[in-house]
Amino acid sequence: MNGPVFVTRPFLPPQETYQRYVTEIFNSRNLTNNGPLARQLEQNLKKFLGLPHLSLCANGTLALQLAIKLLRLNGKKVITTPFTYVATVSALIWENCEPVFADIDPETLCISPAQVKLRLARHPDAAAIMGVHVYGNACDVYGLDDIARANGIPALYDAAHAFGSALDGQSLLAFGAAAACSFHATKIFHTGEGGCVIASSQTQEEKINLLRAFGHIGDNHISPGINAKMSELHAAMGLSILPFFAGNLAKLERLAQIYDETLDISSNSALRRPAVQPGLKWNHAYYPVIFSTQELLKTVMDTLERCDIHPRRYFYPSLTKLPYAPAQSCPVAEDIAQRVLCLPLWPDMEACLAAKTGKLVMEAVNSCHAA
Ligand SMILES: *Cc1c(COP(=O)(O)O)cnc(C)c1O
What we know:
This protein has 371 residues and is of the alpha/beta class. Helices cover 40% and strands 14% of the residues. The chain has 12 helices and 15 strands.
């Protein structure tokens, strides 16, 4: 345990494994444009996740923007959550959508179907619901689906955290009219930079593949497009890492268990964990803890930082505070954003570091309560 500890550490495959793919790339001089490694990774991911319509992209933000384009939401109102990474909302704004924030469920921290209903009553012209599977936990996809269907609009998902989570035996990425996942270096499965769109039909998959490559096939120009292709070097990283994914998931689960045991959540009202959606097999991509007050969170952070351990306030602040989004209030999201902290967690984290971190958190909590 030398040097500073951050909230996560990107997983790296054995260098020789990556090098073998790089040698292939050097031999073929095929660097990008849906090359053999990108096609291979796409096939492997489709099989691994059981998803027939998956398109690789250059990153998760472009994947979100492509999903927005696919569903023709540009220029329209989209109901979404303020408790997410900024990219969810900036992607909407970048595509000229107007985000309408619906508050979150205080237990799962995902968008609340009841709050979505209230927003839809105020904004009957909203064209879609965009949920976020926060921390790899699942939105109430069935509840949101019912509302979407009743209103004749699609539900789509920012599934950036959801790789490896399964709901009722199906990959969480499978839900919604479309979903976008991120393969950024800090995510549970990554390609350095990367992402994918999951579409719900062959036609839509082909549309995404067209849009991500300038909107033309050879000399046939079909639609305005963008460059969101994944390069061969990034695909090589994904191909090198995918075989380790199941093992990494097991390691994360074990580390989360160590945190659970050290943190003594059930008997201490000063801290709690988000509730996992029923039917979810969670990927344990993050270890969020909700403290009873922001003061307590700050005390815990100070304690950890004195030991060179740097947890992350994720997500903070609530995006209702964004200076460039319409001013709206979501009291639950605003409150929780001030009190939630993600503790360090990555597959190869030493068990004793998780135990030490958990113990430091409890010492800080207990010192506050004694004072
Ligand atoms: C990481 C992330 C994104 C953006 O993905 P990139 O691949 O970094 O562009 C979007 N939404 C959420 C919730 C994320 O965590």
